[in-house]
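pasting for ref
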Amino acid sequence: MSGSSPSTPGSLPGTGRTAVVTGASSGIGAATARRLAAEGFDVVVGARRLDRLEELAAAIGGRALPLDLTDPGSVAAFTAALDRVDVLVNNAGGAFDTNPVAEADLDSWARTYEVNVLGTVRLTKALLPKLRDSGAGDVLFVGSTAGLISYEGGASYTAAKHGVHTLAETLRLELCGQPVRVIEIAPGMVKTEEFSLNRTGSQERADAVYRGVREPLVAEDVADCIAWALTRPHHVNVDLLVVRPRAQAAQHKVAREEE
């Protein structure tokens, strides 16, 4: 196969290509699965909550497979169930605390690193042979602006996302000359149903993160960026795309309206 998309003139950009999306049971992952299906990709969704996955897969004409990135056996079974992979969207991750370093919960640090970094490495390593064999593979990492700059109360998450950013950069160097692109999308403030809730532990504190922000990004905005990057001609590599809402000029600079 040549190093370009196998789609034919007049077909959807993803026609004939299989895309794997991790962490697809909610938020950015679910939105990305829907968008890629609309672009013609055959979508395989993976996450731990199989009931949600099956509902999503039925809605988009995709395939749901259980996946726990922290379990080597689960990753092996997931990989074995796939005949072909053209695109891997490494979306699974999360933040689980807002503690300062002086009050660090090391169990939370370990969980954050395991999910965001080690799990991502585990699946990427397992699927690289299939991505190479596709002749025009894509590895896309959903990173974060937290992987580019640090902030108070975010050490466990920023450390992990800096790891994801470095992983993407290193893999791109190592695959140079091979038929696999390495793409990183780094969103800023994105309002989803679970991210801040999982991080802060209460709905009230989660809501406060976005209070007064007129238009934070939503999952579909990030999915739009992901789909755009993946549907460029295959000689075009979007190394890093940073996307924030207009209201967020930087990590600490957010315009908030009085309610």
